[in-house]
């Protein structure tokens, strides 16, 4: 499927994100470009959490997690807080959007997410889900714009950071992809496969140590 936005416009938006300090980082299970058409998402099963749970505490626990199992538990709690819907209406629209995606009605899902964002622009997961759908359609310009909205509201959102890194890698901007992956690891040192991505890109972008 062809990219809807001109390549130059995509890179301009990426540069704008970088200038704003949002040229970013990475997260879970990133595959080489072309092998996966899905941005990182929350685990299928999430724990119940209190809305008032302190994210700062959880991010601290994520960095300090002694092993992968502990890190995944903390990560799931962070996702659970992000996914909590701010109203019953937003919850209904998000549910319908998921149903539409499952039925491969991506355009319908995007319109439903448009409604969520219009209703509750502070709900970052609506922006993040819509970024994912735009990415699946190869609409990198709009995906990057939504990722920016996520990161403005939550700069530590490793799912959005991962998506930004993946897009940068796909459009051939390996330096910004590397920056993104490194930022993601700074947020969550236990991300899967990202160290390998960083190693490979470091050798390509910065060369091997002599």
SSE inventory with pairings:
Layout lengths: L6 H13 L35 H10 L3 H16 L4 H15 L3 H14 L4 H13 L3 H14 L4 H13 L3 H14 L6 H12 L5
Helix pairs in contact: 1-7, 2-3, 4-5, 5-6, 6-7, 6-8, 7-8, 8-9, 9-10
Q: Please, could you describe this protein's structure?
A:
64% of the residues lie in helices and 0% in strands. It has 210 residues and is mainly α. The N and C termini lie far apart (42 Å).
Summarize the structure.
This protein has 210 residues and is mainly alpha-helical.
- Give the overall pLDDT as a whole number: 81
Total number of helices: 10
**Rg from alpha-carbon coordinates:** 17 Å
Strand content: under 5%
Kindly, what is the distance between the CA atoms of the first and last residues, rounded to a whole number of angstroms? 42 Å
Low-confidence stretches are: 1-36
Q: Care to count the β-strands?
A: 0
Q: Profile the largest sheet.
A: none
Class inferred from helices and paired strands: mainly alpha
Overall morphology: globular
String of helices and strands: HHHHHHHHHH
- Binned, the helix content reads 55-70%
